[in-house]
Amino acid sequence: MRDKIKKEFSKKEKIFLTQSYFKYPLPEEMLKELSEELKGINRYPSGGGYAKLRQVLAEYVGVKMENILPANGSDEVIEIVSRAYKGEVLIPIPTFSQYEASADRGGLSKILINCLHDGVYSLNYSAQQLKEASLVWICNPNNPTGTRILREKIVDILQKAKGMVVVDECNYEYLGESVVDLIDKYENLIISRSFSKNFGLAGLRLGFAISNPQNIKKLAIFCQYFRVNRMAEKAAEKALKYLDYYQEAWGKMKKVRDKFVKQINELGFFAYDSKANFVLVEFKNKEETERVWKYLKEKGIYTLAGWENEFSGLDDQFIRFTIGDEWEMDRVVEVLSDWCRRGDLNPHRHTPTTP
Ligand SMILES: Cc1ncc(COP(=O)(O)O)c(C=O)c1O
């Protein structure tokens, strides 16, 4: 097995586990169909406010087209929402950096709430904070911890919040749980989804918001008419016809991820249980983390450390590994275990308490 890992590794040389995108090849037939669409790029995307795309997305999600607002990536959903609901925004750190970045651009006043204590990420907004905020973020599963947020917790926040609650479900297809069924019950709920992480369309940029028609109309005021490009629109329609292919790929990724978490924990490090396509590992301190990050880089393995701009409020003793092919993750484990065996690296453990 080790020989196999090394043989494959020497062929490929570098392993990139930084950005979290869909790492499998896209269905060949789909790419062929999509390349045919290039002939049409002299034309604008479909008019009428993306009626066809909204219909296709609505069918996939199980809502009506009036509940859908397509956007240029879910980054744009974050941006639009931050323009539409001015005031105070609650951001549950450590989390995805763009909630903060969009809040800054929109001139919102940010309240960063630390939700990570002793190895457990748990949303802990106070009733008072929820009463005062105009916008509340929930990232489910959370990036970078990969934590699944329980439905009861989301409902509790929806009931207590006076402002808009946005649940970022850009990794929904890996988690397999959603609060979409609550959009009619709670008028302060918006959900954000993406085609980047699960359908391999990160480079084309397609995301969408899901909410009740009144909220969708309000959000539409804050975005451009032709914000989603024609190829992205066509690609989404086609990708959804290949769901079986994607489901198989998601299943494969989950197996590799769970094996990686287990192996890292067996080495004595602290890997967070993840429901997304990345895994957060906590090391002893900043110094140790820098050594690991540099050592992995020397070995051709590129990862995202806590000090990079991808995350809000992530401390320096963390590294996030995007899940790649099985041999790539095996290689990471091999490099770390060799180092541990030499007695040069000290594993770090929490005894997590239940949230
Ligand atoms: C939690 C979260 N939300 C949103 C995004 C943005 O995704 P995109 O704009 O590619 O749809 C990302 C990308 O890393 C993310 O991790």
> What is the number of strand segments?
16
CATH superfamily of the largest domain: Type I PLP-dependent aspartate aminotransferase-like (Major domain)
Q: What characteristic shape results from the CA principal axes?
A: globular
How would you state the average pLDDT, rounded? 93
Kindly report the spatial arrangement of strands forming the biggest sheet.
Answer: 2-11-10-9-8-3-5
Number of domains: 2
Ions, cofactors, ligands: which are bound? pyridoxal-5'-phosphate
Q: What is the CATH first-level class name of the largest domain?
A: Alpha Beta
Strand content: 15-25%
Which H/E pattern describes the elements?
A: HEHHEHEEHEEEHEHEHEHEHHHEEHEEEH
Q: Helix share of residues?
A: 40-55%
Number of helices: 14
Task: Report the span from N to C terminus.
Answer: 39 Å
Tell me the Rg in angstroms. Answer: 21 Å
CATH topology annotation of the largest domain:
Aspartate Aminotransferase, domain 2
Largest sheet geometry: 7 strands, mixed
**What CATH architecture of the largest domain would you give?**
3-Layer(aba) Sandwich
In words, what does this structure look like?
There is one protein chain. With 355 residues, this protein is α/β, with parallel strands linked by helices. It has 2 domains: 2-26 and 244-341, Aspartate Aminotransferase, domain 1, CATH 3.90.1150.10; 41-242, Type I PLP-dependent aspartate aminotransferase-like (Major domain) (Aspartate Aminotransferase, domain 2, 3-Layer(aba) Sandwich). The protein contains 14 helices and 16 strands. It has helices spanning 2-12, 28-37, 47-61, 74-84, 98-106, 127-132, 151-160, 172-175, 196-199, 213-220, 230-239, 243-267, 286-298, 326-341; strands at residues 15-17, 68-71, 88-93, 95-96, 109-114, 116-117, 120-121, 135-139, 164-168, 189-194, 207-210, 270-271, 278-282, 301-305, 311-312, 318-322. The longest helix is centred in the last third of the chain and has 25 residues, at 243-267. The chain is globular and about 65 Å long. The mean pLDDT is 93. Bound molecules: pyridoxal-5'-phosphate. Pyridoxal-5'-phosphate binds next to helix 4.
